[in-house]
Write a structure and sequence with these properties.
Layout (H helix, E strand, L loop, with lengths): L4 H12 L5 E12 L9 E17 L4 E6 L4 E6 L11 H13 L7 E7 L9 H17 L5 H16 L6 H8 L5 E5 L5 E4 L1
Parallel strand pairs: 3-5
Antiparallel strand pairs: 1-2, 2-5, 2-6, 3-4, 6-7
Helix pairs in contact: 2-3, 2-4, 3-4, 3-5, 4-5
Length: about 200
């Protein structure tokens, strides 16, 4: 059964003592046509699924990000003043996206959050892209940044390629950034034009 965002908000309130200001989401995906053609600039037809990563959050006064993972039962924290890789744990995905946003010139604001996801890890449903795009949505919410799905997908891909060290194409991040319920997304991976397909 998919995650109930109201329950995510309740868990946040219990942990932090007050309700979140935002609850953001980014879905996992299945790919219908075009496996391995995204990084060869071909066409792909993925579809967002009902499994997703959710982040409940509120702003902080400082430039730190504090995130509690329901799935891992751990809390991670890092500064937005300087970024340093520290192994390969789940918090590296948050740092990776913050780093990519900062490198692209986006202003970064601190926040505290609670993250949980029901996209199975390692099942080929793009759990990492869902986490990256949920993180991008969190930074967009707290910083008042405009949501440009192509720009955010590119930053998610850069985070995965350059910080996490996984070579991937753009498909996973773009469908997580732009997918809509009940539609596949026809993506031209050369131009990054996309069209929802019912």
């Amino acid at each position: 059964m998919p995650i109930d965002p109201q329950e995510t908000a309740k868990r946040f309130s219990k942990l932090y003592g007050q309700p979140p200001q935002w609850v953001v989401r980014a879905p996992g995906r299945v790919n219908l046509i075009g496996e391995h053609t995204d990084y060869n600039e071909g066409f792909v037809l993925p579809m967002a699924i009902d499994r997703a990563v959710w982040i409940a959050l509120r702003p902080r006064e400082d430039r730190r990000v504090v995130v509690h993972s329901v799935n891992y039962g751990q809390t991670g924290e890092f500064s937005l003043e300087h970024f340093a890789k520290e192994g390969s744990g789940w918090t590296e995905y948050f740092k990776a996206v913050a780093w990519a946003l900062g490198e692209a010139g986006f202003p970064l604001s601190g926040w505290e959050g609670l993250v949980e996801g029901d996209v199975p890890v390692g099942a080929g449903l793009s759990s990492s892209a869902a986490l990256e795009l949920a993180t991008a949505r969190a930074f967009s919410a707290v910083g008042g940044l405009p949501w440009d799905p192509v720009a955010m997908a590119r930053l998610g891909q850069r985070a995965e390629n350059e910080w996490i060290g996984v070579r991937c194409g753009i498909m996973d991040q773009l469908v997580s950034a732009a997918g809509r319920a009940g539609h596949a997304l026809l993506i031209d991976c050369r131009s990054l034009d996309f069209e929802p397909v019912p």
